[in-house]
# Entry
Amino acid sequence: MWLDFVTYLHHHGHEDKVPWYRGKEWSYLRGGLTTLDRDYGLINNIHHDIGTHVIHHLFPQIPHYHLVEATEAAKPVLGKYYKEPEKSAPLPFHLLQVLSRSLKEDHYVSDTGDIVYYQSESETSTCAQSSD
# Structure
């Protein structure tokens, strides 16, 4: 269950409105940049710094023991495309709130379009009404 939680949080972030690219808009680079780094506090070392998820997706050949160093080196190059993770207390209880909000609000993506975002049911209803 923990691994599901960690994986979900690396690929979903309601607070960040992470885009999903499809069709002509998708590329390996764009796919990697839509992942999120997360800080797991004391758990970072236990999980071999997998919280440095963006660099892991961009350069999967980098061994886990160089992920933090590689992330720091890539930040200036990535600029606005890198989202700094929220710093964790020793135990990452703050991520439960992120998970809860995402599970409550991130239910749907549009069936059309090559750049889509998760939406809540109310956002989907509003979009459908405005297009009538």
